[in-house]
């Protein structure tokens, strides 16, 4: 578990997109960030107060979170200087970079000297067990997509936020590095060894109050041949009570797979539900989340209405419309 | 790739079952084994010539294969003595043990001094890529089970042996440590990191002649919640042209999961075929392989006939009847 609150390190991010982890923290857990740290030439700004390491420390920050991708996969000397200073004045570090903090000898030495933690959230920090399939208490919701990167994390985050706003018991359960950095804990599922994937999901979503909902972050797609095994582990390890179908309607082909087309929503519904019922016979599909970012203001409502009529399920874009109707559907279960 | 032929190390195996890896090599690749090495008190015998390390070396053996499980997960002093002698006179070592040869400092030092290879086949030795889903040349067959441990490896081995006997082009492609030790190469799929599972299967079964069949060793089951993600990676990374349904009809529940029942063969057929068609739209289910070891001589033929009539597919126990009818079905595709 990563200690909060954070100071968000934006480094020399060339543009806003490079700082999407920091932006996610600011959007979904603003209480986790006391400020942002930008270096000369930084082209990103997540819209919170600029602070020095010392100012943020005085404001209570415990961890410097690298909220930006690094260029060329190298931790530059300029970054290194800041990271070493941060350790020196008492920060932990957290990173989702491909190259690991723990592989940098100077950071490791400094952290050992100061008793600081280095969190590489791409790497599992727990020895997960093989899944036992036992029914757990509490409720679970999982978004499954027609493709990768169609808004599954956003959907879960938005439903969790809406439930908490309503005073319902709810936890977002991250399975990727962005989500883990946002909330401070989770399972980097794509880095878990095959035999332990479903067990890692069981670990992620333990027994809970009967009226508590876990929103498990989805990964991949049952129809994406590169990652479908990871998705399967979520469906079976998560034993969801509710599925949300996630879709992006303007893709020419499956992400990264030019020869593959997205399934239609009926195929996704039938496949995902049949598989989910293996682990939880009472599972239901409760709604559809569409990422309409490439549809105009004139188009998107018509599209959603058409899907809703065809599928007979509440169909929303949670970014444009909020997740209220999806939460209504969960609450009605 | 493990150098053949082998000397099979049976150690102090308490009984025949403990030597199932050695037995598998003797059954399926007898040409890979020049002899067996048994210690005092060994209760196993795979029925080939007993040899000393020196005799087997003189007969051409290149690798000492640990064909037996070790008690308590510890490489005993008695074993260690033999393994060190083997390295000293020029053997490589190969093992599927949970505890690794490479974690034994004395073996590592001896191997380095002699230039010997230590093969721990439970651990991937290749950095696999993320699957690209590209259609590969050649044909592939995959057994998918109603449960774990229902005879999928045996089915693939038997079909491969039958095809080679007929002069057809065929390769068995192991995905578990027993199969890897038997053939000398393969992918230990359950130890691969989640993101690379399907890519590892693509690596395992590359482009080949159009009339060549890969028999990919199945793992887990789409209906076994602990391992279904691994199975999914085989279905999508393997892009099989043909599926064989594998079943064991006397299970009271799914292996290791007392609260889960096996699916029926119709459910397995429909689910596996629908998923396989994502990667290979021309995939067909060509037959059924039943492990009838718990049915009597009076019972098993009646059972197979009943399944064959219900399912409309060639249904055999390849152990009792050979895999000829399954190969006929492949050849007819």
UniProtKB/TrEMBL annotation, chains A, B:
Protein's recorded name: Uncharacterized conserved protein, NAD-dependent epimerase/dehydratase family
Residues in D-glutamate N-acetyltransferase-like C-terminal domain copies: 130-327
Domain of life: Bacteria
Domain spans labelled D-glutamate N-acetyltransferase-like N-terminal: 44-124
Signal peptide range: none
